[in-house]
User: What shape does this take?
Amino acid sequence: MQLAIPQAPRRVPLSKVPGAIARLVRGGVLGLVLMAVLGAGAGALGRFVVEELDFLSRAEELEGQLAALTLPPRGEREGAEATLEVLYAVGELRYSASGVRTYAEYAEGLGPGARVRLLVDPHVPDKPREAGYVRARAKTLGLVPWGLGLGALVGVGLFVRELRRTLRAELEPLRKGMLVWLTPDGPLPESRREVLFPASYWKQDQKHAVRARLRSGRAPVRNGDKVLAAVLSSLPGEARVIDEELARTLGWVR
Assistant: This one.
């Protein structure tokens, strides 16, 4: 095989690199799916925050009486939750409710008959909530929209960076890379997937070790035991092996 490779920078359209568009599309689809999943999670969290804030805007504060409580073991109460059974009245109607959540550290100071402050939605009077517990959580929930916005920006940034990295890995070594003859450290592995293998090359009497990348099922351009590859200073330690199909597609063969 006689090669006729132009000097860098070389014109290498993405459409001329076999499989590059498919890999780029595959990476883009996976990124969009991941963003959709994260978006669905963010939407559910956003709806929860809105519902909590709506509850606080509608709820009325009432005084209830503790009937019973359930606490976690004594050594596990820091940051944990307890549940209360409370008696309370809304207008002329009296209610009893169990499973009212609050902080264990607060509940351990209460006893049967203790007065507790409750928030009750007039539209759902049989589901009271302990006032201090709800208001403390509301302060944290106020930070959620900022966290969602920051997370969205980070997600978009990572998606764009990954697409740019894929483009760079596919094209930059071919367009701007220095072409060298690599000496594999051993026989090339046989695989139906992309192959990575250790190799080295010499430049100005200095040996450089790299990890070479060869597309699956492709025969590299050879010179005896050496294989042709492109290396790029901005991607140290990496090399893109030039296979025969790629060389012909790019017009690098006479």
User: Anything to note?
Assistant: The mean pLDDT is 82.
